[in-house]
């Protein structure tokens, strides 16, 4: 088991969480590591190392996961084309979006959009988010569930 967390480590984690929150909020606009690192009050290289140490993935991978989660939700709605979804979640190239989506989700955006997702309608939103989340490296940080009764 790890020893007690120092006040400096707690402050560092709070800054990393601020940067992660920025990515969660602003995923659809162009974000570069230098801008995200500024939110954490760190240099870009130090931020990237600290983020990976804390969350088990790079800032870029985390941002791509957020974008793909949102893309899945928009594609399930079915009222937007794949190109519109691609642009809405912050990708600038349909080809790179489609390739990344297929790599992570396991099927093309078009086939994902065309598939029946009715089985997800009965699930509470917090469970649906977990069930449809693209796979990612587990985090070293254990966080409390975002709402009562939901497992993140």
Salient structural properties:
152 residues, mainly alpha, 9 helices, 0% strand, globular, disordered C terminus
Describe this structure in words.
By secondary structure, this protein is mainly alpha-helical. The chain has helices spanning 7-26, 33-39, 44-55, 59-77, 82-88, 94-105, 109-114, 118-121, 125-132. Helix 1 (7-26) crosses helix 2. The longest helix is centred in the N-terminal third of the chain and has 20 residues, at 7-26.
Structure summarized in a few sentences:
This protein is mainly alpha-helical and 152 residues long.
Percent strand: under 5%
- The end-to-end span amounts to 23 Å
Helix content: 55-70%
Structural class: mainly alpha
Continuous helix count:
9
Total DSSP E strands = 0
User: Biggest sheet, open or closed, and with what strands and sense?
Assistant: none
Q: Enumerate the spans where pLDDT stays under 50 for 5 or more consecutive residues.
A: 137-152
Over the alpha carbons, how many angstroms does the gyration radius reach? 17 Å
**Strand and helix order:** HHHHHHHHH
What does the secondary structure layout of this molecule look like, with pairings?
Blueprint: H1 7-26, H2 33-39, H3 44-55, H4 59-77, H5 82-88, H6 94-105, H7 109-114, H8 118-121, H9 125-132
Helix pairs in contact: 1-2, 2-3
């Amino acid at each position: 088991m790890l020893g007690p967390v120092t006040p400096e480590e707690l402050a560092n984690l709070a800054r990393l969480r601020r940067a992660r929150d920025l990515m969660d909020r602003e995923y659809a606009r162009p974000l570069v590591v230098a801008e995200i690192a500024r939110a954490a009050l760190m240099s870009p290289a130090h931020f990237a190392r600290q983020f990976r140490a804390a969350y088990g993935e790079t800032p870029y991978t985390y941002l791509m996961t957020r974008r793909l989660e949102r893309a899945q939700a928009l594609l399930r709605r079915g009222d937007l084309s794949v190109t519109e979804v691609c642009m809405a979640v912050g990708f600038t190239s349909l080809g790179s979006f489609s390739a990344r989506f297929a790599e992570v989700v396991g099927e093309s955006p078009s086939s994902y959009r065309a598939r029946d997702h009715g089985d997800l309608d009965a699930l509470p939103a917090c469970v649906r988010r977990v069930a449809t989340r693209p796979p990612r490296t587990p985090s070293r940080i254990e966080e409390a569930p975002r709402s009562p009764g939901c497992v993140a």
